[in-house]
Write a structure and sequence with these properties.
Elements lengths: L1 E13 L3 E8 L3 E7 L18 E9 L2 E11 L8 H17 L7 H15 L5 H15 L5 E5 L10 E4 L4 E3 L10 E3 L1 H12 L12 H15 L11
Parallel strand pairs: 3-5, 6-8
Antiparallel strand pairs: 1-2, 1-4, 2-3, 4-5, 7-8, 7-9
Helix pairs in contact: 1-2, 1-3, 2-3, 3-5
The structure holds zinc ion (ZN).
Amino acid sequence: MITEDVLVVRDVSYKENDKILHVISRTRGKIQLMSKGSKKPNSHLVNVSQIFAYSKCSLTFSRDMYIITSAELIDNFYGLKNNIDSYYRGSYILELISYVAQENEYDYRIFDMTVAVLGYLANSVENLDKLVAAYELKLASMLGYKPDFVHCISCGKEIKEDARFSISEGGLFCSDCVKYGNGINVTYGEILTLDKILKTKFENLSSIEVNIKSMNIIRKFLFYYIGRDNFTTLKLI
Ligand SMILES: [Zn+2]
């Protein structure tokens, strides 16, 4: 018997009464679970077999398939269903994580951060885009693409002024080194903001002012490193 925390990113109808759940698991990466009988309204697996369900599952492994024997719902992020703006952003988070997650490869920090941001999206009516931007930047960083917003990547000097941010180089060029790199001109204020977003927890984001330009830089940065930018749910945001 295996116990695993999972987040359902997709539920697919299977045979008359069953579902196959595509989930992100905390310690096994992206896996599929057979949820037997979960289409029956009185099934004890109804709640844990829906998209956005975050639960603790007991599993057996049989014939190349994980089968749920019992499960306890931790959260279904119900608030997402009451606010279409939160719902679309939550759907984008699921599409993103389901793209970057791999089978049998995991990073529990990414799993924990994903359920955390869904909780904030479900319970907030403002700061939604800021939450998504912070998730995108932290995700890039956890995937191994952590930008340096403090030093010039060419001469190493600490940046204290307007500079140029290069997505492909993953950092800033100071005014002396700007001739060596292509990128986007950013003000010192924007640089401080980007660095704060990277280092601040979701619950403390509300005090940080983030402009659209900075959010666009973050998204371009993430998409450049994960190699994809055509997420379906992004069109809804
Ligand atoms: Zn420099």
